[in-house]
Amino acid sequence: MSLFGQNNQPNSGSGPFGSSSASNNPGQQQSSTLGSSSFGGNSLLGGQQQSLFGTHASSIGGQSQTNGFSGLGKNTNLNSGSSNFGAVGNGSGASLGANVSSASNISNINNTSSLPSSLNQSSSKLIKDLLESAHNLPKSDNLELGSVHLTLKELQRKSQKLRKTEDSSKKDANFTKAHYLLASSGISAEEIESELNSIHLPANAATGGAGITGSSSLAAVGSTVNTTSYSNIENYLNAKKDENILNTIEQSLNLASKDFDQFISSNISIDWKVRRDELRKSIGLRSGTDNTSDILRSSITWNKSVPGAYNILTPLRSQTSSTSSLKQLPRDKFENHAKIIYQLNEARLENRNFPLSLNFAELNKLQNDLKSRQITEVWKILIELTNEKFTKTNQEQKFYNQPASKLSTINSSKSYLESEFFKYMEELYLKDNKKGPEFLPPSNLNKISYFIDKVILKNDSDLLSKTLSVNGTPIWALIFYLLRSGLYDDALDLVTRNQDLFNKFDMNFPIYLRKYVASEDHILPSGLNEKLHAEFNQQFQFIVDDIDSAINFDPYKYSVYKIVGKCDLSKKSLPQAINLSIEDWLWFHLSIINEHQWNNESNLIFENYSLVNLQNKIMSLGPKYFNTSSNNPMYLKTLILVGLYELAVQYSYDFINECDAVHLAIGLNYYGFLKVSSYNNKDELLIVRSNEYEINFSRLLGSYTRSFKISDPKVACQYLILIAMSNGGNSKEEISKCHEALRELILISREFSMLLGEMNQMNGSKIPGILERQRSLIKLDDLQEFYSQIIERSAIKCEDEGRIFDALLLYQLCQEFDTVISLINKLLAEILSSTELDKPIIQYGNYEVLSGGSVDSKGSQDTIDNNVILFARHIVKIFNINSFILEKIDPQKKETCDLLLPIIDIRDLFIRKDFHQVLIEIKKLGLIPLGSDDNLISIRKASELIQNNHLDDNLIKVIPSLLIMVMTSISQLNFSILTKRYQALGNEREELADLKKRAKNCMIYAGMVQYKMPRETYSLLINLESSL
Fold this sequence. Notes:
The protein is 55% helix and 3% strand. The radius of gyration is 51 Å and the shape is flat. The protein has a two-stranded antiparallel ribbon with strand order 1-2. A two-stranded antiparallel sheet has the order 3-4. It is mostly helical. The protein contains 43 helices and ten strands. The two termini are 89 Å apart. 32% of the residues are buried.
C-alpha cells in the first residue's frame, strides 16, 4: 500500500548493491532496464531497497530491512514516529526520515542512475508531496522514553522485546491502516488512546452494568490501565530505592568527611606562619626566615590541649578584656583565694559551717585600692544579708528558692544602709573634741542631735522656723534621722516622751510609730495604714510635684509620714530641702516598697511599688548615675543591695577583675542567691531566659582556671568541684557540667596520680587522689560510679583522641584490668608490627613518640611513667602476683600478652645479631612452625589458626615481622657457615640442611597465610629464601 492507497507488486531484480524493484502503478511507466543504482535497488514507491546506509522503506506502512547496522532491523511504521534515518514526527517536522540530508541523497540517486527526465520530475513532485503531508503528522509524546545511551547488545535486546510486543498486539487487533488514515488528517490515534486509558471507570461499569454496551472492550481497557499502573508503581519503587541508597551513601560520606575535619581541627596544631613562609619560598617569593627541616616538621603537631576542643575550660567573652585579664593577678592574691576555696570544700565535705563572706572580707581588707574596697563592701553586705556573724549552722544553698527572700533582701539591705549611716554620724561625733555640753553624754540621741546641728542646720538655717523644735532641735528632723540610722526604739522613745508637744493633727502619730516599730518588717496594720493615709492627704494635699519654696511646711514631717505609711507613691521622692546622698535615696526607696504590706494592692498602678520596680529603675539609670563619686562608686553595691546579683557578677567581671568576679559568684552561689543557667552557652557570661538574668557559672569557673589548669591542677580541681553545688545542689545539668569539667581537667593536665590516685607498686591496691577523696561533693558517693563517670569516660575520650597510653593509665586507675591488658596487647602489637627491625624497640614506646613525635626529637628519659613497653612489663608483674586482679582478666588476653612481651626481648636479640638465640626464642613461642621436623600437616594446622581467625588479632599482626626475623636469621647463619675459612664439612652440612629445612617450612607457612599479611612482606621473604 502506497501513500495514496495503491498496492505495489515488487519485481525482483539484481544490481551490484542489492535487488531492484518496480512499481506496478498504472499511472506511471517504468523501463525494465532500470537495473540498479549505485546506492541500491531502484524503486519509486514500493518494493524493497538496500543502500550503503542500510535503510529502505518498502512502503509507507511496510517493512524496513537493515543490512548496515545490526539490531535495527525491526518492523517500523510511520505512526511509531521513528525511521532508520532519525526520529520522525517528534515535534521536529520530519517525515519518513526525510530531511535536508535525505533530499540531497535522493538527488544523488537521480544523478547517478541516469533516469529519464520525466521520471525525475515525478520523483521530485512525489518528495514534495511527502514533505507537505509530513507536516500533518501528529506529534508523538515520547518523553518517557528518555535519551538513548545503550550498547549494541542492549539495543538488540530492546528491539527484540519491542518486536514481540508489537507482534502480540497485532494478534489482538491491527489498526495500522486506520492509524495512517487518521494521521493523514492530523489526528493522533495515540493521544486518543492514552486519554481513553486514563479514564478510571467504576467497578460496576467494568463488570458490565445494565444499559452499558461493549463491556468486554471496557474490561480490556481497565486491565491495560491496571497493568500499566502496576508497572509504573514497580518502576517508581525501584527508582526510589536506588535513590535512597545513593542518598544514604552520599550522606555517610559527608558525615565521615565532616567528622574527619572536626577531628583534624581539634587534634592537630599548625604553625601557619611557618607554613606561609614555606609556601612563599616554594612559589619563588622571598621569605623573611629560613626554616629548617626540624622547624617544618614541628609546625604540624598533634595537640592534645587545644582550648577549642573542650566545652568548659575555655575563655569567656568579655566586654573589656584589659580589666579582666588574669595577667594582672598577683600570685599571693591567687594563693590566698585558693586557700579559702580549699577550706570551703573541706568544710562542705564535713558538713560544717564555713563563714565564707567573713573570710573574703578579711582577705580584701589587706588591699587598699579602690576596686578592692568596692569588693570588701560587697562582702560586708553579704555578711549582713546572711547574718553570718551570728549563724553557726551550714548555710550552703540556704537561700535558694526561698519564698521570703525578697522581703529578707529589703530588710537586710536597709539594715546595712542604716548601720553604715550611723557609723558615719558616729565618726563625725567622735572627731570633734570640743562638743558642747548639750551633746553630752554620747548617747544615740545626742549623736543624731549633733549631726543635725553641725550638718543639717548649717545647710538649712530656716528649718527651725518651719518645724516643731525642742530646745533648738527640730523634732521631725530628729525622728527622720533616727529612722535613717536604724534607731527605731530611740525614735519611739523620743515621740512617747514628747507626746504632749504634737498638735491636734499629729495626735495619732505616736500610735502609728509604735505599731511601725513593733512590726518586724516595719509594716502598719491595714486599718491604721488607711487612717494615716487620710491624715497625710489632709495635711499635705497642697504639695505639688515640685516643692514651692513659698509654701511653708516641714519637709521632715512630710518625709516621716511618707516612710511610715508609704503614702502617695505616685511621687517617689522627698522634698528638695532634704539633701539625699545615693545611699539615702536607695534607703528611702527600699523603705517605701509596699508589695509585702497587708491589703496593699491598689487599683492605681502608681500606688504599688515593688522590689522589681526598684530594680528596673536602677538598671535604667545605669552605672553612670551611681558612680558619680570617684572615691566611692556605688553601682556594684547598689546591685547587690537590691538583689541584682547576676548583674553584679557581670559588672565585676567586666570592670573590676576576673578573680574578684569569680569569687563573688562563688559566694553568691554558695548561699543560693545566684541564678545559674542550665543552658550551655559557650561564650556568654550573662544569659537572659524568661525575662530573668542567669549566670553561666560553669563556664565562668572554667574560664578562670584556664591559666593554672596545667601548673596547678589541684587548685583548678577545687574550683571546678563547686559547679555541682549550683541550683540547690541537686541539679542534674550542673552536676553533669561539673563531671565534664573535671574530665577535661584530667585530660589536659595529665596529673592522674594527683587527681585520681595511683596504684601501689607492691600489692596493686589503689591509693586515692584528691578528687576521689572529695567525690561526695560532686554527688558520686559510690566509688564504682565515680570510676565509671570520671575515670572510665576520660579513658574512652583518650582512646577516641588516639591517646592510648593515657587511656591505659586511666583504665588501670579505675581497676578495669581486663581493658588494661587489651590496650597493652593492642599497643605492643602496633609497635612490633610497624617499627623498623634494626632499631631498638624500647624508644618507640615513649609517650611523645606515640603522640606523633619522632624518635630523635623525644626529650624525656624512658621510664614506666612515659613508656608503654616499660609500663607493660611493670604492670604485668604486679598483675601476676595479685590473684584478685588475675580473676578479672580474660585468660586468652593474658595469654596473648604473655606471648607479645617476649617478642620485645627477641627484637633486642635480633639487633645484637644473636641469630641462633632468635630462632630458639621464636620457636618457643609456638606461633610459627619453625622446627626442622615439622611436617605439612602441622604447618597446615598452624596456618588454619590464622585463616579461620582462631588466633588473636594482635598476634596475627606480629606474624609478618616474626617471619622476616626468622628468614633473615636463617639467611645470616647460612651465609656465615658458607663463608667460614676453616670448616668441618660434616657438621656444617647438617646445619645447612637443617636451616634450609626450617626455611622451607617457614615459606610453606608464609604461602598459606600470605593474604593475611602485607604484599611486600611476602616478596621480601621470597628474596631471602632465594639467597640461601
